[in-house]
């Protein structure tokens, strides 16, 4: 179970976040995720916030390992208040989660990027309509081994030099990244290609989503990446901020210079959008037919109750500002299907708030 011993200040005043959106991988469920029976699409979800021992049923969640800690924390607290409901949370990656979701195997799909055009088509084939709901903000952390005292701040150009396809088999030591770095082996660790974090990072750093060198240690489990870098003096990895926060005793955090100085990810810099271009929103996608079931309605609404927003901070992410929470709740109450990103996937230079206003 992902530890909830992290305390990150909630910045409710952070109303704008510049997006560069992705997904993230993973692979270890907290409970068995039995397939659900296919269902036809129903009416818009009612504003049902019922909780209590009268609720029963099962809510099936899968997808992004980045969003996984949020869903796990929400599920844990929700089940305490609703012991008759079983919430199963798995982490097969954003891409893997959408495949199950569009195949009617899950009720909710976690995603660290918006749904892609090919996934929109997959859901159409599966007769699955969905409601897209942002749930938090995150910043991708670039980490190195604690013994590394020289790579305290890296530019986007230097990250590109490490990760671009042309670097494969050629860029192998730190002094190839910067001449005054030591002639030490560079060990790269990152999410697999089914990961939304991989999609986001490659789009933001390399310039094209889903393209990078292939000779790095890949894993869909972010904890494996943590272990890899912590054991490799020349190691470098990227993953969600919460995984750094939960393992900061094993890792060193690199600042990122995108032309405005060296900035580290934090609740403040992620929330106000100054940690660029590696800040991003996190999502849940709710199947519209499932959203008519009282236990699913209650679990989704549980995410946005003011007293539960602290759970987002506790697992290392930045809660949505209050005005945006209201807009997201309205989207769910109205049963508004589709994506505000129109299936375009990772994007930069736009905000959730502005896109929601345009939609309305």
Strand content: 15-25%
Low-confidence stretches: 5-43, 46-51
Please outline the major beta sheet. 9 strands, mixed
Order of helices and strands: EHEHEHEEHEHEHEHEEEHEHHHH
Rounded radius of gyration (Å): 20 Å
Oligomeric assembly: single chain
- What's the rounded overall pLDDT mean? 85
Span of the ends, CA to CA: 39 Å
Query: Which secondary-structure class do the elements indicate?
Result: alpha/beta
Residue share in helix: 25-40%
> How would you sum up the global shape?
elongated
Number of strands: 12
Q: Given the structure, what is the number of helices?
A: 12
Blueprint (SSEs and pairs):
Blueprint lengths: L56 E7 L4 H14 L3 E5 L4 H9 L5 E4 L5 H9 L4 E15 L8 E3 H8 L23 E4 L5 H11 L10 E2 L3 H9 L4 E6 H5 L6 E2 L1 E3 L4 E2 L3 H5 L7 E9 L6 H11 L4 H6 L7 H13 L17 H8 L1
Parallel strand pairs: 1-2, 1-3, 5-10, 6-7, 6-8
Antiparallel strand pairs: 3-12, 4-8, 4-9, 4-12, 10-11
Helix pairs in contact: 2-3
Short description:
This protein has 360 residues and is α/β, with parallel strands linked by helices. The chain contains twelve helices and twelve strands.
Report what the structure shows.
The strands form two sheets. Strands 1, 2, 3, 4, 6, 7, 8, 9 and 12 form a nine-stranded mixed β-sheet that branches. Strands 5-10-11 form a three-stranded mixed β-sheet. The longest helix has 14 residues, at 68-81. It has helices spanning 68-81, 94-102, 117-125, 156-163, 196-206, 222-230, 241-245, 267-271, 294-304, 309-314, 322-334, 352-359, and strands at residues 57-63, 85-89, 108-111, 130-144, 153-155, 187-190, 217-218, 235-240, 252-253, 255-257, 262-263, 279-287. It has 360 residues and is α/β, with parallel strands linked by helices.
